[in-house]
Amino acid sequence: MLLANAVALVHAAAVLFMLVGALLALRWPRLVLLHAPVALVILGVNLAGADCPLTDLELWLRERAGAPGYEGGFLGRYLFDPLGLEVDAAGTQLGIYATAIGLNAVGYGLLAARAPGSGGAPRARGPLQDPESASPAPAASWSGPTRTSAPAPGRSRP
């Protein structure tokens, strides 16, 4: 049963990552390389109406452990049933797709706006610095005080 629960946790993490991965990529841009394929696979499985392989694995592990299975898929079991919603209802399905597509559209839209050459905000720079007009600041080095005259009366040198 421990393995079935571990698969359920991995499944929850995959669903959460699919939902917010594009937004996380705003902070860590290379995350897109992982998020895009994960999101496309999850979307493809859902649009095809196929059984999720992680749900199938979890149910198989539950069966092997002698625990009861469940109907309605992962989201139905762990999210919608506790909320009293029917996972197959049109409104629930619309909510699922609107949430997933909406969050990803916002995330990828903001990422596209930040892309070089898009005229968007600069990446990995200060909020007021334009990378095209910024010139490298000269390297400053401090070697201590360089007084050439005597200190003012009543003051001593450091």
Would you mind describing this structure in some detail?
The chain is mainly α and 158 residues long. Helix content is 56%, strand content 0%. The chain contains five helices and no strands. Helix 1 (2-24) crosses helix 2, helix 1 (2-24) runs antiparallel to helix 3 (53-64) and helix 1 crosses helix 5. The radius of gyration is 27 Å and the shape is elongated. The model has no long low-confidence stretch (mean pLDDT 84).
Relative strand content = under 5%
Total of DSSP H or I helical runs spanning 4+ residues: 5
Measured between the Cα atoms of the first and last residue, the distance is 72 Å
Shape summary: elongated
- Supply the helix-strand structural class: mainly alpha
Mean pLDDT: 84
Strand elements, count: 0
- Largest sheet descriptor: none
**Element order: H for helix, E for strand:** HHHHH
Helix content: 55-70%
Gyration radius, in Å: 27 Å
Uncertain spans, ≥5 residues at pLDDT below 50? Answer: none
